Amino acid sequence: MIKQRSVFEKEYYGDIEGTTSYLSNEPDYFGVSGIRPRLIKYEYRLEDLRKVEDGIDMLNNRLRIYKRLLNKFIQARPNFTKKELATYLGISEHYADVVINDYKKLTLGLKIKECIEMKGKCEFEVEL
């Protein structure tokens, strides 16, 4: 997994930990800072496991041709640029963003699944 944390990555922590990518403050650009809670709380239960597995399956299908290559590339180069990844996979830099974001989501989904299977639940918070 990429060790560097960019502006677009937000930490989550609780039963599982890591970073996820999303942009939450675009409206601030227009002169007013939003007032919002600092965290979003997620609570998964055993009855949510099927939905988590469905999400994992969808991401595995989308990543099927890149997953093995991506695993190999990330192991060899934990810190890399979007351009290096795009070149390695033979795709555009824009699509490299899509692939790496799907890979991060898949990693999160696998953590959630394992946590539910081990504890019967998975609770964590994501910073905004």
**Structural class per helix/strand content?**
alpha+beta
Rg over alpha carbons: 16 Å
Low-confidence stretches: 1-5
Helix content: 40-55%
Count of the domains: 1
Primary descriptors:
128 residues; alpha+beta; 4-stranded antiparallel beta sheet; disordered N terminus
Structure in a nutshell:
The protein is of the alpha+beta class and 128 residues long.
Notes on the protein architecture:
It is a single chain. The chain is α+β, with helices and mostly antiparallel strands and 128 residues long. Helix content is 47%, strand content 19%. The chain is built from four helices and four strands, in the order βββααααβ. A four-stranded antiparallel sheet has the order 2-1-4-3, covered by helices on one side. Helix 1 (49-63) runs antiparallel to helix 4 and helix 3 packs across helix 4. The longest helix is centred in the C-terminal third of the chain and has 27 residues, at 93-119. The protein is globular and about 40 Å long. The two termini are 21 Å apart.
Topology:
Blueprint: E1 9-14, E2 18-21, E3 39-45, H1 49-63, H2 67-76, H3 82-89, H4 93-119, E4 121-127
Antiparallel strand pairs: 1-2, 1-4, 3-4
Helix pairs in contact: 1-4, 3-4
